Every structure is written in C-alpha cells, then in structure tokens.
Amino acid sequence: MNLARFPRRRYIDGPTPIHELKHLSQLLGGPNLFMKRDDLLGLAAGGNKIRKLEFVVAEALAQGADTLITCGAVQSNHCRLTLAAAVREGLKCRLVLEERVPGSYNPKASGNNFLFHLMGVEEIKVVPGGSDMTAQMESVAESLAAAGRKGYIIPGGASTPLGALGYVSCAEEILSQTFDMGLRIDRVICASGSAGTHSGLLVGFWGNNSNIPVTGINVSRTREAQEAIVHDLAGRTAALLGVRETLPRSAVECFGDYVGPGYSLPTSGMVEAVKILARTEAILMDPVYTGKAMAGMIDLIRKGRFQPGENILFVHTGGSPALYAYAEILTD
Ligand SMILES: *Cc1c(COP(=O)(O)O)cnc(C)c1O
To answer: Which of 65, 131, 146, 245 has the most CB within a 10 Å radius?
Structure first.
C-alpha cells in the first residue's frame, strides 16, 4: 500500500519496540506473549492517537487552520495528544469534554486533566453525556470564525479513514519488524474504542495478505455494536487506500465481555491486569482502555481460547497518565 502519497507530520522517531513478555507468559502458562509498545510513542506521554494525528494534523495545516478542536471524555488521552500536537505545531487547541459519567468532571483532577492545563489548553467546554459532540465542536468552530480565526475539527479519537491510516502504517511496521526479528505472529490483540486502531490494523494486515487476525477487546460497547463500527470504518479506510478486495465481515472480531458497568468504570479484571503487568513486566497499563483489554486477553488465555504455542502480540495503545486519576482504586 502506498501510504507515502498522504501528507503526514512527524511525531514519531522510528518503530516502537516489540517486547517479549516472558514473565507474563510464564505466569499464565499459555501462549507466547509480545507487546507492541505504542505507549512509548513521541509527544507528551505516548499513546495510539499520535499515529492518527500525524495524518489528520497534516490536513488541518493544509487547510490553514490555526486551532485544533476535538472532543473526548473527561480523562481523554486523545484530547491530551491533540493538544500536544497543537503545541508542537504552534497551533491553539480547544476541547469539548463529555461528562459520560455524571459528576465525573473535576477541574482539579490529576492525570490527563492536569496535563490539559499544563500544556496550555485554550478552552475546555464540558457538556453532559449523550450531547451531540459534532454540533458542540461546530459551535466552537463558529465562534472562532466570528473572531477571524480558523478551527479544524478532529472527530473523537481521530477515528476517521485518514486517522486510521496511522494504524495501517503500524500494521506494516509490525510486519517488517517481526520479519527482521524472525518472529512469527499468529494474532494481534488491541483495545477497540472509537475503532481507528482496530480498523487500521485490520486493513493493514488484510491489504498486505498477512493472514494475521486482529482481536479487539471493547471498552464501551457490545460485541455486535462494536463489530459493525469497526467493519464500517475498515471499509472506508480501505476505500481511501484503494485496497481492491473488501474486508469480509467475518474478519472483524470483538469481545464485549470486559466493559463491565460501562466506559471508564473500573472492573476487578482491569484492576488485576494493571497490577499484574506492573508487577511482572514493570509496564504501566491504563484503567480505561489497555487495562480492560489486557484483562480480556488474560481471561481468554485462562479459558484456553488460544493455542499454547501461539505467538500473540498485544498492542499497548498507551493511556498511563489516567492511572494517576484512579490511584485510589489501584492501591492495595
Ligand atoms: C483511544 C484509546 C484506545 C482506543 O483506540 P481507538 O482507536 O479509539 O479504538 C486505546 N487505548 C488508549 C490508551 C486510548 O487512548
């Protein structure tokens, strides 16, 4: 696939490492586990949105924007990283935060919220859960326009076909890296949220005929709802790239069993997974995405869903700053 024809900004210095999780594999006594360390990507505190923003911010600059506008939950990693990209580019950034859990917005909260202020966010608008976020961001863009400025709206999670190219590129990075390492990967597992990561990886592996399945662990939706969203975005991403053969619906696999009571709400599996990874591998997961995705992988291994000799690559999509906003429930 020819990704070089899409304008791109550079926030990444090179491939992120693939680490073998020897202690975790031993503890679980199942497949051989590896981790793609996208938590170590450049820009403040790392994470998956950086790969998507490389393409999306390039478009914002091409359109002459002076301000990035985006939205997310109150501890959004995506908002933190959009702001970080804006700072890098000398742009302003305005955020619309959705209070998905009533009463969850605390202007003095730690974690990503602290980083919004530290990096000099221009404006934070908090709206109730279920608000029309597109309309909210459009109204921010209108008020900028009235002041002679130009905003560029980035949809939640930067999960547009253009943003998903970041994970098509990551799939290609994984293929070339594992080839160099002499490592056969049988399955990739990632958290599946706004779906750009999952869809981009699927299209990247599919478009390269790699036959590597991608399993998504949901963080907010049921299996059916999430699979439909991933399949739709994968189709539009493939179309943007000109991939000729359509991705079959059967290639999209999501598990909805690890969401718990809802998005961003703790589960006992998440707490266990965060502690296990910290104590076996000294790797920091996050409470909202990777902690739940890891809880899902651990549970599926315990249930014998994978072959013992399989090599599984878990994509660590970042999010560790949110740990500090959840310290109380993660302390023994
Ligand atoms: C946004 C996010 C995800 C989910 O990625 P999507 O592309 O939105 O599905 C996973 N992990 C972390 C840490 C995130 O911030």
So the answer is: 65
